[in-house]
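FAQ: What does a multi-protein file look like?

Like this. Sequence, then tokens, then the next protein.
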Amino acid sequence: MKLGNLSMLLKKGIWSFDKVYCGLGEFVTELKNGRDDDDEITIFKSVGAA
């Protein structure tokens, strides 16, 4: 999925940032687990992450 597609979902109200479980930092430091089942999805946008 390209970021533009995510923007379209936001504008249409199909998806929102309230659905975000955790950020990359929480995941890589194991403060939060990854996916629990196949119904969950992972979105990673690397631009700006340093």
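And here is the next protein:
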Amino acid sequence: MTALPPQAESALAPLRAAVLARARAAAEGLEGEASRRARALLDDGEREAEAVARRAVEAGTAAAREDATRRSARARRRAHELELQGREALRRELERRVQDRVAALRADPAYPDLQDSLRGRAAEVLGPDAVLEEHPDGGILATSGRRSLDLGLPALAAATLAAMSEEVAPLWTE
């Protein structure tokens, strides 16, 4: 796939702004829920670890202490696994929502203008003889000989999310 030249930034700026605004709105709604879940999982893991440690001390045996250590480690690992699963689910949900909203652009009255802009971009990159066709999910697919350019809405949304990864990563890593 051919990289987009710098002048494409202005053509894609409205799409990028719309995707960013929608991603932020979706992420804000999901961020609180993920934080609460992660905190609850960590709290449960810490409580379980504390209970195991108390039992070991009360028993007063080395075997009980070793058992407590193993259980505590398992509980922490499990809590950490669940937190990571929650974060991954949040990341996937954000991607799904962004893709859904990008797909909805096809119904937007400005979609024909976006298609024209994408056709122009494809011609700039691959030349005027490029074969252009509409992507099944919206946007444009272009080919010229062995070269191809995917300006489909799903690919543009994925590229925009990837470009914004530093901005949105804290939503599922904090």
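Q: Is there any per-entry metadata?
A: Some entries carry free-text notes. For the entry above: The two ends are 34 Å apart (CA to CA).
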